[in-house]
Structure formats: structure tokens, C-alpha cells
Amino acid sequence: MGKTAYQKLENEEEKEKKVNPKRNANIFSKITFSWMNKIFVIGSKRPLEEQDLFPLLDEDKSDVLTDRLEKEWGKELKKKEQGKRPRFWKALMRVSPWSEYFCIIMLVLTDMANRMTLPVLLGFLISYLMGIRDLGASFKYILPTGICITSLGRNLAQHHYQNRSALLGMRFRAATTGILYRKVLRMSKSKLAKISSGHVINLVSNDIQRLDLATQNLFASLRSPFDLVVLGILLWILIGWQAVTGLAFALILIPYEAEMTGWVAKLRMESARVTDRRLEVMNEIISGIRAVKMYAWEWPYRDAVKKIRRAEILIMRKIYGILASFASLQHTYDSVICLIAFVTLVFTGTRLTPFNIFTMVGLLSENRRSLVYGLTDGMQLIADCFASLDRIEHFLLIEELANGKNGRHSKKKDSFKDQKPKEEGNYIKATDLTCHWNGLSESPVLSNINLELKDSKLALITGPVGCGKSTLLLTLLEELMPTSGEIQRKGSIVYVPQTAWVFSGTVRENILFSKPYDEKRYKETIEACDLTKDIERLPDGDETTLGERGASLSGGQKARVNLARAVYADADIYLLDDPLSAVDAKVGKHIFETCISGMLSNKIRVLVTHQLQYLKNADFVMILDSKGTIEHEGDYFQLQESGLDLDSIEEELRIGNEKYYAIHGVESTTKKESEKPKEPDIRETTSSKPVAGKGLASVTEDRSVGTISAGLYWRYFRSGLHAVLLILLILLFLVAQASIISPNLWLVHMSRMKWVEQKHKVNLIIYGALVGGALSLAIIRGLLYYITTLRCSETLHDKMVLSILKSPVLFYDTNPSGRILNRFSKDIGIVDEFLPPTSLLALQYILQTLASMCVTCSTNYYAIIGVIPMIIGFLLINRYYLKTSREIKRMEAISQSPVLAHIADTLEGISLIRTYHMENKFMEKFNEVQDHRSQIWFLVPHSARWMGIRLDFVCTAFVAIATFSGVSFETDAGTLGLSLVYAISTVGQLQFAMRQTADVENMMTSVERVMTYTELEEETGYHIKKKAPSDWPTTGDVKFENVSLQYYEGGPQVLQNLNISIKGGERVGVAGRTGAGKSSLVSALFRMPDPTGQIVIDNQQILELNIQNARRVISVITQNPTLFSGPLRNNLDPFSNYNDAEIWNVLDQVEMKDKVADLPGELYFTLSESGNNFGVGERQLLCLARALLNKNKIIVMDEATANVDFNTDKSIQETIRSKFNNCTVITIAHRLNTILDYDKVLVMEKGRAMEFGHPDELLKNKDGLLTELVRNQASALM
């Protein structure tokens, strides 16, 4: 991988000097998290940087955890042999040592004991003050002291078990992500073709996020049933059996919550599938953005994504409808339980006293979170987690490559050696191969293929489009396992795919591919692949940084870099999938003679090509028919003897050069080749000078610093709700909170009543009405809030999609696809799933805390003495904390992008990664970016606990003031009970509220990141309202006037002062060496980006028109054909403007009718991601069919037939002549014979128009550039 992809944090010497302070912290420091002080000191002075991070502990490293999980998963897989189902969650649980679980359980029990003890002490204190119990004068202060100590102990235990749970979640996440990545490295190309990249990205981002969150809440949820039992026992002992009747409500909740949790889990699975589809479409848009823009399909794809998003939001609304009932119980369930218990007490003749009221209220208040959260949100999180674990488990159970990733050929190699013990040297042999892509239900792609090659043999494989040539190479590579037959080979093997794979690194890094640098071999390689001059012209030579997917290079240059990588690898067997199709004849001849037949002459080579002029040079030729069977095979002379008319094939190759031969004679070809030019070639003398400019490096991901402003919250909520409605929602929250505390205020009032008054039905009805009102308002509050946040999320997502579609292609060339997808996966996932419940919980607890302080101070004025310093302390600690935690969260949000980008790169280049045995290197790089993420995430829970413990000290001081002041001064027992219940609850509530608030602010960084992408720089043409007349263009005149083009600021001029005029209806061919600027001409015409100068179509200056209006009138078929997943018909006619008959007609014209008719579903056959279930040549033909269907006046074809055979090419050229006879056709071609009968030919070099005119006139100039190009091609084809 390139240096620009993932930067190292520091050199190894610096890393060794740093030690994680947690490792050497003393016991006090560990209890209070004081070892985190250093990071907070730095964060308070300046934004944190990567060098400030603590080194990752060895036990938290990705490779250690993944190895451990893989070992345990291997044990689970052995269960399949016994007929049992392997369970991934069991393997995952065994990743962490059991001692860790024991520590967490002991801390949970400590927390539980303190929570139960605290209300009991409060009850004893109230009974003492009431005179019920005579405990001695000293207990007047011993009990308050015990309350304070127990309160602090409870919180310390809670912080430490939650911190350990969070770290456990981090380890689970790292281990699961690691095993998923290793699984990808072991999956065949055929299996991965059936799984969208969106599915893999969703597993890594959202599913593992749920696993992480559920782990943090696992133990809180599991303790809930035990809390319920202990609570029932205490209530029975302290108050009586009547108090336990209220817990019946909690028992009733359990089956309701279990049922609803099951529904939520099912809805989550359904939502995950929709999210997979959304991410799949977004990934296709990102990778095929040029096609989307050229066809002006931004709005159809915006609508397609919006439609999927609507379905996703609809499911989310159902989920949040259920969760609203859960959220309402957070602060009302204890009121319902108390209502049932107290009504039972009254009806059974037991008077309501401050003791039984506030002992029960205190116990329920203290255990509110563990009971309600555990039985509602906790169960829901665990159910979501198991749904995600099922998805991960299903992925891990997909069949892998035979014999694993290491030495997967060894068994076959040995068996072959046993059969032929005397055989020496390298070989590859295929016996009776039959292959299917989609199972036996469909026709085989290859049938009964036999091939055997030994040392230094060159096999040439050819045949019509779609006959299975590329499939044969993938089968030989064992990326597609044959249905029947056997493959045997000896020797290392490399593969050059038809679609070049170039990553964002330097040219040298792409060629070396982590191999040691050998200067001699490197120079030989770039010379053999004809890259020397291209590299010299780059700004920094071979150290020039390429953009995403090699955006700085032309198609031909990418193909040659791809080939150079294979050549430098120095393997024994080479599988070459049509590497000559993307280059011109001269370069192709150079590569064939110098590279394939020269530098690789001592290797076994299997070359798939349509360049039939090389038949004579092959040791073995295999010609496949359209059904994937061998039609002819043997060497050149054997083919002649078999009756194959090779003379007619050779004659076909010469067609198109007649004009050259007629003008210069046949002899001149050889003559010109042998003669040295007397004058230096302009191109040769200037090409050695580097072009001014700089490389196209990936930009650093944006990261905001500083506080999350109130304006961000306002813009977030305003994106989903009108300002007036937003104010009404705030008022609803206040009214609902007042209604929630009203039942307890009424209880204080009832405790002062006489027994006769307490029994009065009116008082009980009022109490019941207050509880019912609180519950109803809480449900309405939660439901409306969730609806609002979902509307916000939906609006922001739609804006982000629109902004992405309007962004210039430079944005995509400088931002890794994983980085962009991270906004649509993790960030939107947080905004969808985690921000709404967390923010609602934060708001509820903030309001509850404020209410608690108000009640405490109104009933005990001395408590105000503690409130003011407590609020000041909270604000100071929180402010100090947020300076650091905010930056940690921002860094953490960014840290996932390299992980996703690395996975996306791996999915795209998986065949090459395995071919070059780079699995370990890529795994090391993955571990590096994963460890970097864990290194940042390590600080997230620790920083939260650092704050929480300090807030608890402040809260404990407040409780002490409230308790001792209440005891010291004579106070009514009921009033004191209410005051102390709310004061004690403030301890947990306030720090939890602040922690939730901090979590919300951290999650708002995702909103911030999404909003950043809603405000990206747009292509200027979208805002232009001017449109051409509806019948424009009528003739198709095209003029380029002083047109220059620069892809990015500071980059080289790829077009320079271009001045040409094309009349309507003319067919114009564009010729030139690879990298001459031919495709840049297309970019300028489509304003990608806007060029300088003027481009005029039928008297309309297109730079003054709306950009979509200008693009829509031009049909284009590019050298990288782009299809999208979904029905084939939608790819041809996304607007449904044509009937089926018209579509079948164009398919017939491009010779794809029979192929489509054989597909299941025919026109409605579902294409896989990026149309990968069609070959490159077939995709080009389908794109051509799309252009024929649109019937535009201007047609641009950029190497549109580069990947098809000569017969298909000839047929297509006839179709172009007949069907586009009234259209302006601009054709970029390396096969010059296809454009020599055009009306004009434009010859380009270095972005300049060197020659432009009728080909007859240009060919008369024996020193002309077109003449030289044709001469080179004629020489190459002879």
C-alpha cells in the first residue's frame, strides 16, 4: 500500500520510548484513573495529535486478539463434523480470559450490594427520626456517614465494571473485525462476487458497533433479574408482602419486553439488509461517479438512494415506536410500581408512613437504571447484538478457497509429482474443466477444457466476447473453483486482470508492491512495459503520487503499471488477461516483443487477447466458442491444417490500412521501420522533460477542532422540524418532567394525612391519575422525539447524497472510497441508531436531575449551600473534560476511515493480493490501522470514567451536606425523606446525565461530519439555470476554441489551447499515443472539470448552460464500462422511456441479444455489484446499447470496443455507420483501421491537436503523425 494511504504515527525508536501509563500506575491511580491526567493536561492546552496517544497494550493488539479468536472459531467449526452448528458468540466469549469476567462480576455484585444498602440506610434514618427505632444518638450521624460512603462505593464499583466492559467490547470489536478481514482474504473471487461490498462494510461498521455497545451493557442487563429478586426480598422484610405486589408490574414487563425485543431484533435484521443495499448503491455511485455524471444520472440515483433510505427509515420508525415505550419507563416505572404497592397497602389497612413510602421509593429509585434499562434497552441491545452476530456468523461460514490461504496448491502439486515423478521444471495443467458462476442451474461458462503448458511456453487464448476467457484464467488461478475437473501446477504464479488495479500510492510503490527494490530489474521492467517516457513526464517521476484508483493515469498507463507489477514480481507462470487492449498498436507491439516474448520468454505465459496478429508467435493457441468450449486448439500450423481460415483473419487485420498502402505502398512499412529518422522527433525530445505540476495525493481527512457549538444542535434539529414545532417539543419535555415528579410530591402530601384521609378514594384516584398522566406524557415525549430525530437523520442523509453527487470528480480522486463510505455507514449509523436514544436519555436525566435538585432545595434550604458549589464543580470538570474528550471522539471517528478504505481496497484487488502472496502484508497493514483505531478508542472509556469519578466526589459532598443538614436541623420526616431520596438520586443521575451529555456531544461529531459532507464544493454548472432549447442540438456541430484543461490546481495541463471544429454529422476519429490527452478531450467535453476557453455545440456555449442539460445530449461509451447492480433493463433505460421491443432491438445491434435471452429473467436479470457477472467486453457492448437507445445527436466512444474481438468490432462499426449516420461521432481508438474511413481524424500529442483533417490528406504526409501511427500499427499487425 502507498505511503499516502496510511501514515505511520512515529518511528520505532520513538515508539519504544513511550509506555502506556496504565501499565505502571499504582493502585490509587488505577482506582481514580489519575494516570489519565497527562492526556487531559495536553488536551486542555491544544487539540490532541496522534503523537500524544498512549501506546496500545500488547493484549489489546489486533493480531493477538484475531489469532485468539481464529483459534477458538476453529474449535467451533469442528462441531460441524458432529452435525452441530458452530456458534460464533461462544468463540468470541473465549477470546478474553475468564479472570476478566470474574473481575467484572465481582464489581457488579459490589455495585449491586451498595445500591441495595443505600435505601435501607435511608429507611433506618427516617425511622430513627420518626422515633420508630431507638438506635442511640450516635446513629444520627453514623447513618448519614454510611449513606455517603455507600453512595461513593456504589459509583466507584459501577465505573470500574463499566470501564472493563467497554474495554472488553473494544477487544471483541478488534478481534471480530480482524477475523472478518482474514475471511475476505480467504474467499474466492466467485464467492465475493455474490456478496456486495456494502454488506462487508456494514458488517464492519454497524454490526460490530452494535456488538461493541451491547458488550458494554451486557452485565448491567444480566444483573437485572437478580436485582429484582433481591429488591423483592428487601421490600417484604422492610415493609411487608404488600410492597412486593408492585413488582408484579415489573414481572409483567418481562414478557412484554422479551416479545418487543424479539420484534426489534427482527426489524434490525430487516433494516441491516436495507442498509446493505443502500451502502452497495452508494459504493457503486462512488466508484462509477464518472459514468453517473456523464449520463446525467445524478437525480435518478439520488431518487434510488432516497427510495432505499425511505424503506430504511420506515423500519427505523417501527423500531423507535417500540423503543419509545421503553424510554417512557425509564422514569415512570417506579411510579407505577409504587402506585400498585401503596394502593395495596391502603386497601389492606396499612397506613402510608414516610418510612415505607421513602424506603420503597428509594429502593426503586436506586435500582431504576439496572431494572428498567436492563430489562428494556439492555435486552434490546443484546437482541440487536445477537442479530448482528448471526450476520457475522453467516459470513464466516461461507465456503473458502481450497486448502486455505497458505500453500493452498501444495496438495495438488504433490499429487501431480507423484503421477509424474520424472517431470522437472514448472508447468500448469487443466484437465476436463467445467465451470459455473451461479451453480448447476445455469449453463456452464466453460466446458471440458484441457490445457497443459510447460517451461517457457506461450499460450494464446481468444474467442468471441463472453466465451469464458477471463473465467478460464480465474479458474487456473483457483479464484473460481471448477465444477468438475482438476488443476495442477508447479511454480509461482501471477495474474494481470483485464481491469487494472492501481492503489493510491506512488508509481514505484504500485510496481514494487512491497518487493525489495532492484534497480536493474526495475529499469528493465519499466522499459519492457514502455513506461520510461510516461514516468519521465510525471511531475515527480516514479515518486509521483497517484490519486484514488490511479486517477492521475490514463487507461493505457494503468494497464502498463499493472503489467509492470507482474513482470517485476519475477514469477514462473503468468496469466495475462488482455493487457494489450488498452494500448495502441506500437506500444502493444513493443510490450509483446520486449516484455511478453522478451523479458518473460523463459516463463510460462497464458495470454488472453483479441490481437490475433500474434497467433504466429504463440506455442499454443486455444480458440473458444460462445458456449465456452474449445473450437480450435494447437500451434499456428496445426490450426491451419485443421481447416481454420487464418488467411482471412490476417486479411481482416489489414483492413483499414488500404489507404496507407495505396498512398505509400506496401514496401514502405518495412522501409520506414528500418530507416532512422533524419530529424529528431518533437515528441521524443520533449518527453524527457517533466510536466509542470504535482502529484494527485489523497487529502487528509477533515477534522474539526474546538467545541461543538449550540448552532450545530440547532441546525441538526431544524433539519427535521420547524422552529415553532421545536419550541413546542421543548415545552412538552418540561411539562412531562413536571408530571413525572408530581406523584412523589403527592405521596409526601398523603404521608401527612390522617389514616382516614389516606383511605379516601379521591386521594388515591388523584395519585393514580398523576401516575397515568406521567406515563402517557413520557410515551408521547419519547415518540415525538424519536420521530423528530429520524426526520433530521433522513434530511441530512438526503442532503449528503445530493452534495456527494454534485461534487467534482477531483473530490473522488483525492478521497478514498472507504472514507466517503464511512460517512454513509458509521456516521449515519450513529445518527440513526445511537444518537436518538442516547440524547433522549441525556435530556431525561438532565431534567430529572434539575427536578431532583429543585425538590431537595425546596424541602431543605440548607442544601442550597451544597448545590451551588456542586453545579460550579460540575461545570468546571465537564468543561475541562470536554476539551479533551471531544478531540478524542473526533479522532476516533476519523480512525475508522482507514480501516474501511483498506477493506475496500482489498475487496477490489483481492485476486492480485493473493496472486502476489501479499496476504500477510495486507494483514499487517490492516493490523496497523486497526491498532491505530484501538489506540484512540482506548482513551474513550477511560476518559469518561476519569470524569465520572471526579463528578462523583462532588456529588458525594452534596449528599453529605444535604444529609447532615437535614439531620442536624429539625425537619418533618416525610419532607426529609423526599429531600434525601432526591439528593441521593442526584449523585447517580447528575454524573450519568453529564456522561450521557458528553456521549451526545461525542456523537454529535458524527452529525458534524455528515453536515460537512452536505456542504461540499459543487461543480459550478449545477447552479446555472440557463438551458438550451428542448430540440438542441439539431445538427451536432462541435467547436473547441482555445480549450485548455487542468484536472486539479497545480496539476499539469492535459489539454493545451485546443482549436478544432467538427461539423454536425461528421465522424471524427481521435488518435494518439497512450497518455496523449485523448480521454482528456472527453473530460473537457463533459466538463469534468470545467475547461478554460470555449466549447460550442450548435451555437450554444456549453459552459454557460446547466451542466446536466449539457451532458444529457451527449452519449458516451468509456474505456472503463460502468454498470450498476439491479435489473439489466434499468441499466439500459433508467428513466423507462423505451419499450422492451426497442431494448431488444439495440441488444441485437450490439450482438448481445442471444446472451441476454439465455439469462434467467432476461431483461430483468439482476446484475451483481458493478455488473461483475458480465465480462469487460460484454459490459462495453451493453454501454454501447445504452448509447444507441438514447438516440443523441452527439456520440463519444472512448476505446469502446477495446475489449471485444475483431468480428464483434467489425459488426459494431457497421452498426455505428448505419445507426449513427446522422450523428456527430467522436471515436477514440487504438485500432486505427476503425477510424481511417472517418470524415476526419484528430491526432493528439501532449494535450495538443497536432493534426486534424481528412485521413486521406493526413496520410499523404509521409512524415506526419497519423502516417507514423498507421505505419506502426501496420508493422505491428504484420
UniProtKB/TrEMBL annotation:
**Alphabetically ordered keywords of this record:** ATP-binding, Membrane, Nucleotide-binding, Transmembrane, Transmembrane helix, Transport
- Cite the Pfam families for this sequence: ABC_membrane (PF00664), ABC_tran (PF00005)
Q: Where in the cell is it found?
A: Membrane
Chain segments annotated as transmembrane:
228-254, 721-741, 762-787, 861-882, 951-969
Residues in domain ABC transmembrane type-1? 116-364, 727-1002
Region annotated Disordered sits at 668-694
Q: One Gene Ontology cellular component annotation? A: membrane
Biased region (Basic and acidic residues) positions are 669-686
Q: Does the keyword Membrane apply?
A: yes
Which superkingdom heads the taxonomic lineage of this protein's source? Answer: Eukaryota
| Gene Ontology MF: a single term | ATP hydrolysis activity
Could you tell me which residue ranges the ABC transporter domain spans?
428-652, 1038-1271
Reply yes or no: does the keyword Transport apply.
yes
Family assignment from sequence similarity: Belongs to the ABC transporter superfamily. ABCC family. Conjugate transporter (TC 3.A.1.208) subfamily.
Return the protein name.
Multidrug resistance-associated protein 4-like
Taxonomic classification: Eukaryota, Metazoa, Cnidaria, Anthozoa, Hexacorallia
